[in-house]
Every structure is written in structure tokens, then in C-alpha cells.
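The instructor's notes for this session suggest beginning with a concrete chain rather than abstract definitions. Hand out the sequence below and ask the class to guess, before any prediction is shown, which regions might be ordered.
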Amino acid sequence: MKPDISEFSYGYALTDELINWHGTSLTAAPVFPSLYQEGQSGGGYDLMLQRPGLPLFLQFKLSHCMVRRTAQEVKDGIFQPPFYRMHMRPARHSDQHEMLLDLENAGNEVYYSAPAFHTSDEFNAAYLSHQVRSRSLWIRPSHIGPLPDDDEHHVAFLLGSTPHICSKPRPLDTSGKLEEFERSVAHSFKEKSRTAIKRDALENTAHYLSEIAEKHRHISPESKRSSRVQLAERHPLDRIAFYSQVFLDSQLFIVRETDNGQVPVEQH
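After discussion, reveal the predicted structure:
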């Protein structure tokens, strides 16, 4: 069954919960690619970046609910209905997964997130009870690995069970649960946050993202060149946010520590 919620609504609800990351030392807040507080010193970013932080890239997905026993995963004995499929963009149509994989392999925190629900009623119930995060799948591109061909592929999952990449089924080395995601981000924050959003580190990330963006086969060379020229004088965090959202269709967050020792995330 196709989802009757939008990717925008899911991303909004998930971001809202990350802003108020209850139950952990983490929290999150969105900042989009723009002329952020233009005219201020550093484009308005200087004050925000004076404290330790960690870039986090999320790609929001929707899920299709499988309810029939004719589904291949049922025939293969992997799942019993109902379960969910998170569809990957075929390589013949999009370079997104390859680019996200490159971004993760460069040492960044990169995740797909998809809901274990698909109806408006389920979405509303999860949102009102603050369970969108916990009722979502969280997996790294590296858990999936390179797509083997240009055909259709998806991740089949049921929360509490091991996710599988299909069409040729293969279990993923992750539970895909929120707790695993939170532990990983908290560990990375502890290890990297002192240097990850220093100006030189951001410049390196922005440069590397611009190189990754060159792989995008469906954006013209002229548009890529125009992006480089127009972004040249922008703050590196603004450039990272732009490439993340426009070329990789993912959302950039900055994980930070609050005054009381908790860790918030600011989104870009």
C-alpha cells in the first residue's frame, strides 16, 4: 500500500522531534541553505560555530506497507505481512545513494530515515505522542553498500527485526532502531565535535561535497558551474547546506551541546 503522507510532512515531524530530542543528551534544529542572517559577521554563523558541533546528514524517505502474502519477502521467509519497504532511487535515474555513500565514507554522519507507518491516522498518532523518531528506521548508506546495478532496489523492514536489502535479499548489519542511531551520533559527537565545525574542517567538507556533486548526472554542467560561482563567497556552512539539499536531497543538521550539558542539533 502506498503512503498517504508526504515526505515533507514526515520530515517536518521528525525534525520537530529532533529539536526536542527528549530522553537523550541530543536535540536538533533546522537551518536551510539561504543567505542566513546576511550582513552579519560570518553571515550570521560565527556565534553559532564558536561551540563544538557535529554535522549530521539525514535523507527522509517514505515507506510502502506490504500486506499481501504474495510479496517476495514473504515467499523468501524473511517477513510476514504487514511489513514495510523503503524504496531506493534506481541508479539509472539518480546518483543519490552513491553520493550519500561517498559523503559517509569521507567520515561524515549520514543516515536514511523512513517511517514504520504509512497512513494519515498513524502519522497523526505518532506525531501527537512524540513517537515519530522511535517508529522510524535509521540506517547508514554503508549498511546498504553500493547498489549492484541500475534495477529497482528497496530495504524491507519491520521494527524489531533485521532489515534486508532487496531485490536479492541480504540482511543488513544493523537493527535500524532509534537507539542504535542515537548511540552512534553521541559517540561521534564525543570523538569529533571539537574540530568538526571549525572553519577549516567546514571548508574541507564544502569542497568535498562540491566534488561529490559533480557526479550528479541529471544536473547540467552549466548549472554545476553556476552553483560553484554563486556559492564561492558564501560561508562554508551555507555551501554545505546547499549541496546537501539541492544535489543530495538530504538535510544537514549540526549537533551541538547545550548550556546544561545536553546536545542540541541545528539543522542546515
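Then share the key points. The beta strands are 53-60, 64-66, 83-87, 109-115, 136-139, 154-157, 164-166, 170-171, 251-256, 265-267. Residues 178-192 form the longest helix (15 residues).
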